[in-house]
What does this fold into?
Amino acid sequence: MRRFFTSTARRRCSTKNIAWWDHVLPAPKDPIVCVTEAFHADSSPNKINLGVGTYRDDEGRPVVLQCVREAEARIAGSRFLESNSAAVSSKMVEESVKLVFGQDSDVVNEERFAGVQALSGTGACRLFAEFQRRFHPESRIYLPDPTWSNHHNIWRDAQVPAKNYHYYHPDSKGLNFSALIDDIKNAPDGSFFLLHPCAHNPTGVDPTEDQWKEISYQCKVKNHFPFFDMAYQGFASGDLEKDAQAIRIFLEDGHLIGCAQSFAKNMVLYGHRVGCLSILCNDSKQGAAVRSQLQQIASAMYGSPPVHGVLLVSTILSNPDMKSLWIEEVKMMLYRIQKMRTTLQESLENLDSPLNWENITKQVGLFFFSGLTPNQVEQLAREFHIYMTRDGRISMSCVTTGNVNYLANAIHEVTRSSKEETKILCNIGA
Amino acid sequence: MRLEPTLPTGQASSPTDRRLNALLRHLSSSSSSAMDTDNSISPSPTSAFQHDSVFSHVVQAPEDPILGVTVAYNKDPSPVKLNLGVGAYRTEEGKPLVLNVVRKAEQQLVNDRARVKEYLPIIGLAEFNKLSAKLIFGADSPAIQENRVTTVQCLSGTGSLRVGAEFLAKHYHQRTIYIPLPTWGNHPKVFTLAGLSVKTYRYYDPATRGLNFQGLLEDLGSAPAGAIVLLHACAHNPTGVDPTLQQWEQIRQLMRSKKLLPFFDSAYQGFASGSLDADAQSVRMFVADGGECLAAQSYAKNMGLYGERVGALSIVCKTADVAGKVESQLKLVIRPMYSNPPIHGASIVAAILRDRNLYSEWTIELKAMADRIISMRHQLCDALCARGTPGDWSHIIKQIGMFTFTGLNSKQVTFMTKEYHIYMTSDGRISMAGLSSKTVPHLADAIHAAVTRVV
It folds into this structure.
């Protein structure tokens, strides 16, 4: 609420009584970031942080990819500390969009798109949201339920209202496909839909190829605008091409999509804020027009993205040896995560947990959407010093050979009683 | 005639069926691309597989006038062309400069195998924030010692201004910001898009090519109580005209008596006079009276880190408690914008500011840049006097910082571009950093010709 100055302040010339910000309330903490804060405040030697989706090696340490080290050594001290040269930017954009649209994509060859570098996935989404607001001021964004929590903040701050569409089925712990299709059909023609092309965050539940085809078809019937947030390319199957399948299906069907890309996860460049926003257009002239508008929005927000990250990505993607190395390193990261999924599931099964844990290996990406309740999550933090977001999302990339058994035991402890309660209730019912 | 898709709804379809049906729909005359209430898009009756883009109505944005100068310069094949448009430092050889301390710091970072690339906190690198606050407010600033300052890392000056403005638009009772006339071209856009409304106060006097101090005092004096006022901390862009310390004191008294909120844009600390402390005097004067203010800092120029987007926003508050709450709200502005700031540039700055030797080396390199610019000013002024160019050119040496507001009009500027291949913004602003001893004579010739032949 706004607050006006007291008359006391008006009478005196000194600044002593002026308090511009007394009315400012402490802000609610970000649900993901505050998990890490709570983790840091915990002094237990057993503590595990399963909150943020940042990759750890099997010793629980952050990594720097070899391809990134090589690229960094190459560009260190280069004269490119000057403002972004246009050539470097457009090279980076071209190589980025080829990852999602295909190496031989004619969209890219004919420049039938607008592409700009952005501040990682967040920045790409925000740029798009601002652009959407400017050129479709009456529109809203349809977000899957659930989705990354910051999606809601981003479109809200861009003043684009959001609506949920059905996605996750808590009972089956899978995709609520028929409700999703219904929502697509029932939305007004020409609605904007945000889609996770692979490794859905937080659920790890992705549509099958056939389901994607149907989603694409129904969106075409309704003339919806599909916006893809591609944050985990490579982390669903280990294969960058395969993880872009949903986007390729939409392209084949003639959709003119938008796409946010992040290199935070798959190049382990979190802190450098490197990403890309692309919007497909009718022709290269339209592409240039849209790009010029996106650049205007960016220039009033932060100018241009930091050149270091752009150079790293551009260097890696343009150099065949480095790119091959990168592709291998992505596979290795994913294999480790998949191994931890298998190990966690087996450990829980070996503990004779009464619950069904097959979703640990059925879900894809960085996260395991555990189905743990907020109370169970809290109990894990309180009694076992294990931290995750309140929705029960576990970052599998932070699970190691060293902590997986401890984690399994802890999950087993907090869930064994809930199943017993359920059993009792069922027996009563029967 | 409306052609319906042949599939029963809800069933998966074969690729052939899907394509046929897509084609059928495209050939129909239904409103294939009408959006909810947007009438500006009309369906294209001849589109085949592709619908019209929902963004077909988007027109090409006008080019940024400052960056547009470089674009035009790049296209010019003349061997004597001179780019005096963008405020980016150039050496005597006309090359961009990477400071030695920056090279050293960057090499340190690369060589440190223990360094990782994790997300920074939303408000950025803590050490960078502390050191930045000390740099602008002074290490012994009571506001810092009393924990009344919140400093958050942002993307250079632009990002710091935008985050500050969005915070003000959300939490401050007055939505109007007063900006000097003229000011950096991007200021109005940054503030407007953040949700503030922009008004101007008189600043530059074309007659004297100096400060219109009376006009400034009148305009700020008649601003509504509590209005936000943008102040260039030093080296005003584009005019190079700064208030004297006495004038700053008067401005401070007036602003405090009217409860106007100061928002400093500090893009040239150290670059203006060559002294980091001297260039921060205006800001420190306001902080010293115990009042509140905002300050946006940029390391683009003074560390040559333009492309790395390094900056900081500080808000000086009445109490430590308020500073804490303000900081928590700044996080809510930043998270939906880009989540957290980039790590590389801030790490370089922190490495330099924390190390006594590197810091000392930096001040020497900074002074050398500032001195070269001052030397260019003197050379240009002397060259014009030597040619007997009509007019008083003393403002070239009175103005401070990277730019000189020559006083040339747009016709004269166009003439200089056409006949002498000299590129500058049409308001007659030249970047002194783009000059060298070799090129001063050419510029002096051009100005002389423009002034004598074009009115």
